[in-house]
Amino acid sequence: MILTGSEIARQVGLGRIEIDPFHEDQVNPNSYDFRLGFELLVYQDLELDARLPNKVDTITIGESGFTMAPDRVYLGSTVERMGSDHYVPIIRGKSSLGRLGLFVNMTADLIDIGSHNNWTLQFHAVQPLVVYPGMRIGQVTFWVPEGEIELYDGKYQGATGPRSSESFRDFEAQA
Prior knowledge:
CATH class: Mainly Beta
Strand content: 25-35%
Structural class: mainly beta
Order of helices and strands: HEEEEEEEHEEEEH
């Protein structure tokens, strides 16, 4: 079951959903718009290795925007710190930006229950696209879980700003 926009706002008021800062004008019929933070990470190398830490450059997005190039992965984050210990958040890009060729979190839209962060967002633009800090970049929906709840306590918990992949830690744990 998905929460309606008014129920998202009510649950924020009850403290069962965290959205900080929260703005009523970002509430939609069944979602909440989140905004792009002021930094992007981009990997230095074109060939990436899942078993190794990959070096990144930090880009500060100025008021005049930043042009995302095709064939690169950009990592940004939400302005808002969000999460819930009671509902499962799912994030998606906005359709208006999808119509401009921007893919947002195409493989990682499920946020674990109990994850409270400025969520890292993965971007891929199919053609050059200018993005701006603070722009509405995506939306979050909240879903009612069924069954026993186990809260997230993983490697990205408490993140502020974009975080690069730590997939190499999974290989370390297997060793």
